[in-house]
Give the backbone structure.
Amino acid sequence: MALSERATFDVAVRLRSADGAPIGDVFSFMSGLYFRGKLAYARAFASPPDPASEVSGAGVFIITPNAGLRTPDTPLTVAGIRSFATADVSIDNPRYRKPLERSARAIEDDVGPECDVVLLGSIASPKYVDVLVGIFGGRLLFPSEFVGRGDMSRGGLLLRSVTAGEELRYIPVAGAVRHGRRPPKLSPIDKVQIR
């Protein structure tokens, strides 16, 4: 839909332009609730050691299929999306793993040994975890409330945390139980009436 030449909505138009659209906007459009929750949460609570640092940017990074970790404002074009579609996101694929390792090491060098790194992606998947734990070790954390939750539930949890202004509790990924019993469903949010 976003790649259609006939699409006239903002993200599609910017994606087709020479300047592209911010990858955060494109992924939010394509992924829905879970990614929107991750991005809103990361932007609300990221606290890099040096906010002015060129590498750390705002302290928020997105894992890509073949370009490593990128800031949400990184421009993405139709050609970039098509390139992503050709990459197998697998720990065994060097086209995915090597850029992720390279960019994670650059972030590690930039933030230093005292800075914790929070993973809001899938904690049950070795495709992210194995690479990032290998670089950040015990400083790679994740929200403990993620255990047992599916993507949509995690997205809803993250958006609720942003709305409440309450950061979740983090635990180290290394050695953690990442699969668990499904927690109770999130209670419905009161709907706001717009008149």
